[in-house]
Amino acid sequence: MAKSRIKNEDQYEALREKGYSKEKSARIANTPNAGEKGGKASPYEQWTKKELYEQAKNVGIKGRSKMNKKELIKSLRTN
């Protein structure tokens, strides 16, 4: 049996139950700090455009290279 490559299995399963695809669930569950709770992350508005771009890249948002900071924030919140 192959080893799982999912960093946060609980988050992956929760996303699958919400109807996310296997691929999208895996991308989100494998991002750095996946599933951390407690409000430790600062709001996206405080992130640099570069940081937002990297996060968008981590979760597989297409068209990110043409987005401005506001568009990146909206895509990250709705993706």
From TrEMBL:
Signal peptide: none annotated. Gene3D superfamilies: 1.10.720.10. Residues 1-44 are annotated as: Disordered. InterPro entries: DUF7218 (IPR055642), Rho-like_N (IPR011112), Rho_N_sf (IPR036269). Pfam families: DUF7218, Rho_N. GO terms for biological process: DNA-templated transcription termination. Residues 1-26 have a biased composition (Basic and acidic residues). It comes from the Bacteria. Residues 50-73 form the Rho termination factor-like N-terminal domain. This is Rho termination factor. It comes from Cochleicola gelatinilyticus. The lineage of its organism: Bacteria, Pseudomonadati, Bacteroidota, Flavobacteriia, Flavobacteriales.
